[in-house]
Input
Amino acid sequence: MHFDRFAKFIALFMLMLGLAAPAYAQNNKPIRSGTWYEDQASLVGGSSQTLTLAQSPTDKFLNITHVACLISVPNGPTIQPVIDVFLTVGSTSGANDLGRKQHLLNTTNQAFVKAVAYYTIITDAVFFKVGPGRYPSIRISTDTAQTPVGLTSECTIVGNLTDD
Output
């Protein structure tokens, strides 16, 4: 009898926990709430990556104000450094055809754990305007003169939506 009440309590607790948890985007779909905008992307593999984010809203400008990334690079016989990370925008997904970019690498912290180098990028002073219906992306490059590695990256952008 006590077990029955305990099982019901646990089931109710888990349901409440699920309802109280913050809502995260699924399938990397952006979150849009009033003027708030958030999107994320991740990739595994290669020595260079383009993390493609969702198309910006077609009815608003997106002002990206924050970018946060965690990049991990397995080390081989030598350290494989990340040499460039930048935010860009294009007219199609993953494109850099509008000729605009903002470098993010100068805000990087690096740590080594066993055979992996971790790069953390957290910026709160990004001022990057994306036009309506455009495609932001984040490009990450390692030293390609060395052996290609299994680069893993995960980035989130946060910003606000405006009419102009």
